[in-house]
Design goal:
With about 400 residues, this protein is of the alpha/beta class. It is about 45% helix and about 20% strand. Strands 5, 6, 7, 8, 9 and 10 form a 6-stranded mixed sheet that branches. It is flat and about 85 Å long. The termini are far apart. The protein binds flavin mononucleotide. Flavin mononucleotide (FMN) binds near residues 177, 224, 231, 258 and 259.
Length: about 400
């Protein structure tokens, strides 16, 4: 391994390489290319040269996607995993954040997570385009994260979104005396009832991975101010808002609890989330005296708005269309359409079977029924891996 050297000359016979002359390089300034000092070159025996070439990111890229190719510092909203890895765990944590190695490790983790988040709706950016010049290893790792996120998000052309509604909800609250948390848990109950997987946590525990995981964010805060003047989100929430990563197209619901007057709290939050690219789809403010009823009403409204009723007949029709197209992703598409709700798929299967009893020759219905069964058995493989889901499984696996 030699650093600060470059090839001065290649020597070989009959089309075969035999020696490489390596000269030390000199670079007068960081922004000037290095020169090879040919007169100081030394001979190395070699039969193969692998040449690696560095490129700059096309400047047009940053123009098309403003905000790209910036080296970002690790956000302070470190996922718990980082703490667990020891990089930020006390007592080494604060020091490590400042040390070169700890800082570099955190930056890399932050970049990996950033690659997971859509930069614009249906646009993911990874590698040098996201973070500025770095190593190919980082670019590859980020590329894998972005690819996984695309597979999970299944981006669609506008208007072709799934009817099933959000499937993974992150509900995070900033709560001092527990009211905002209580309101959040009520909302979580309703969203969970609509078929979504809901993770609830305090806002200070939210890491960039949690934001990347969710397809719906529900963020709650208490408010502080001078009763009716200067009322804004609590300090913890404001700190969180400052560190938001890009959240292109991420559906977001905001709520707050207050004593007298919610003031500008939700406006401040909405502006910040929208600046990050999120799509604010609902807002609720609950007086602390109405916590027994207002969050319930808001939860019901959200469910009605975001999880429109999909009938088994619509699922059966979609299964026919997808089976006719015969694309490789038909099963995943159908599962997505049904919002992962097995009961709905089982009902669609019953609809198709009823059709087949009337018209046994109906090829379309046969193909659709096969597709529905494939989705159910695929899901059952996933379910089998969680013991808690065994009883659900028994309900539809014959
Ligand atoms: C320091 C402080 C300042 C507050 N300022 C306001 C205010 O200006 N206006 C208001 O309506 N409520 C104000 N509140 C009330 C809280 O926002 C309200 O009680 C909230 O529901 C508390 O939520 P939590 O139980 O999740 O902490 C204030 C509370 C505290 C502790």
């Amino acid at each position: 391994m030699r650093f600060e050297t470059n090839i001065s000359k290649l020597v070989g016979h009959d089309g075969k390489l035999s020696e490489v002359w390596l000269g030390p390089t000199k670079q007068r300034r960081g922004n000037l290319p290095p020169h090879v000092l040919h007169h100081k070159a030394e001979k190395v025996h070699a039969d193969l040269v692998v040449s690696a070439t560095g490129y700059l990111v096309d400047p047009g890229f940053a123009k098309a996607l403003p905000g790209t190719a910036k080296r970002r510092k690790a956000p302070k909203i470190a996922p718990r995993r980082w703490a667990a890895s020891g990089v930020t765990a006390p007592p080494s944590g604060p020091d490590n954040r400042r040390s070169a190695i700890g800082g570099a490790a955190l930056d890399r983790e932050a970049d990996l997570a950033a690659a997971r988040l859509a930069f614009r709706p249906r646009v993911w950016v990874a590698g040098d385009g996201l973070t500025g010049p770095a190593t190919v290893v980082e670019a590859m790792a980020q590329g894998r994260e972005a690819a996984q996120a695309i597979l999970t998000d299944r981006p669609r052309r506008p208007g072709l979104e799934p009817l099933g509604g959000p499937r993974q909800v992150l509900l995070a609250y900033e709560s001092e005396t527990g009211r905002t948390k209580r309101a959040g848990l009520t909302l979580a109950e309703y969203l969970g009832g609509a078929g979504a997987e809901v993770r609830t946590m305090h806002l200070r525990d939210v890491g960039i991975m949690d934001l990347a995981w969710a397809d719906l964010l529900v963020i709650g805060t208490w408010v502080e101010g001078m009763v009716v003047a200067g009322v804004r989100p609590a300090a913890g929430t404001r700190a969180f808002l400052k560190k938001l990563p890009h959240l292109a197209g991420k559906k977001t619901v905001l709520y707050c609890t207050y004593a007298v007057y919610p003031g500008q709290a939700l406006d401040i939050m909405r502006r910040r989330f929208e600046a990050a690219g999120a799509k604010v789809v609902g807002e609720g403010h609950f007086s602390r005296w109405s916590l027994a009823t207002a969050p319930v009403r808001f939860g019901q409204e959200l469910v009605a708005k975001m999880w429109p009723a999909v009938t088994q007949f619509e699922v059966a029709d979609r299964a026919k269309a997808l089976a006719a197209d015969g694309g490789p992703d038909a099963a995943a598409e159908l599962a997505w359409f049904a919002g992962g709700r097995q009961a709905l798929l089982r009902d669609a299967r019953a609809v198709l079977r009823a059709e087949l009893r009337r018209h046994p020759e109906d090829e379309e219905a046969h193909a659709a029924a096969r597709l529905v069964v494939a989705v159910l058995s695929q899901d059952s493989r996933v379910l089998r891996s969680t013991p808690a889901a065994q009883s659900e499984l028994e309900g539809f696996v014959r």
